[in-house]
Each structure stands twice: as C-alpha cells, then as structure tokens.
Amino acid sequence: MSMRCLLATAVESYLAAHPHEGDRLSVLVEALESHRHADGGDAACEQCPIIVVSAVVVNEFQAVLHFWDVGIRDWVMHQEFVAMAECDAEDLLSLTYSSLVGSTGLDQVWVAPKDRCPLLIDVSRVRANPEKCLPAQVVYTVHFLFRTLSSQVPIGIPAVRRWTPLLSLDNLLRARVHRALSLVPR
Prior knowledge:
The chain is an alpha+beta fold and 186 residues long. It has four helices and seven strands, in the order H-H-E-E-E-E-H-E-E-E-H. The chain has helices at residues 3-17, 26-34, 92-104, 171-180; strands spanning 50-58, 63-69, 74-76, 78-82, 120-126, 137-147, 161-165. The strands form two sheets. The protein has a four-stranded mixed sheet with strand order 4-1-6-5, sandwiched between helices. The chain has a three-stranded antiparallel sheet with strand order 3-2-7, with no helix packed on it. The model has no long low-confidence stretch (mean pLDDT 84).
C-alpha cells in the first residue's frame, strides 16, 4: 500500500477523534487529496509533505523513553522520517512499531486497542538551509502511544537512553498521553 494511503487513513481517524483540528491540518489533507505526480508514482518531491512517525513509549511509572540524538545533541523520543512510497505495512501504527523495533530492538511494547488512532499529529516548521540548498518546509509528526515495562527495555538499545517524566513532554502531547492513560477524565 502507498504511504499516501496509510497517512490519509491515519489523518482521517485522527480528525474523527479531534475534529476541531481540521483547520490546523487542512494543508496536509489537501496535499494528500490533490497532490499527485505526473508519473502516477509516490516518490517524494518538493511538494510532498514531510512525514515523521514517532513512538511515545511509556512505562508503568508513567515515564517516557528518550534516546540521545548525537546529530542534534538532545534527548528525543523515537522518531523516523518516512518516504511517500510503497510500503508493506498494514497501517501507520504498524510502520511506527516496525521502525521502533528495527532501530532499537525494543519489541516488548504494546498498544491498547483504543490507542490505534494517532495520539497527536504535530505541525512544525523547519527553517531553510541555504548551505544545503533546502527550502523552508513543514513537517508533520504523527505520534503513537506504546506501553512497556521498564524491565523489558534491553540494556543494549542504544547505549544512551533514559526515562523522563511526562512533564518533559510539551503541553498538548502531555495532555493527550494523560488522557490516553486515563490519568485525567476525558
């Protein structure tokens, strides 16, 4: 299935759960509906949305797993850029799980059935980088919630990892995690 179809399905289910965010995601929805390549393929081009999938991995102590990113010199949740191409995942959640397992070895995670919809679709802007001839771009990060037990995290995944409190997340993502974990009323 194409990434465009997987993403469109995820955005559709997200907007069904969060209809008030339709305006914020309207550019992404329009790009998914109308942007097509002349050759009919889904290879990335400058008009394609930039998509990142993110695994928000929470343990039994309501702490979030972060990894040290050498490139940006900061602690980040697992995330990966995805190409607008064909893939063999059944949905974006499965693709996020495969990415998490493939890059960290952490396969002892689960998703509650009610959490199959994206937790949050974040919109951020990346400044232009004239040195690399890159224009300013909009990035859509699709966050999914995964649960694990801290004892299930293998010691060898990347050597530099840590559990951080939910308070380390930005306000909206933290509120969504709290709600999903039923730490606050819906």
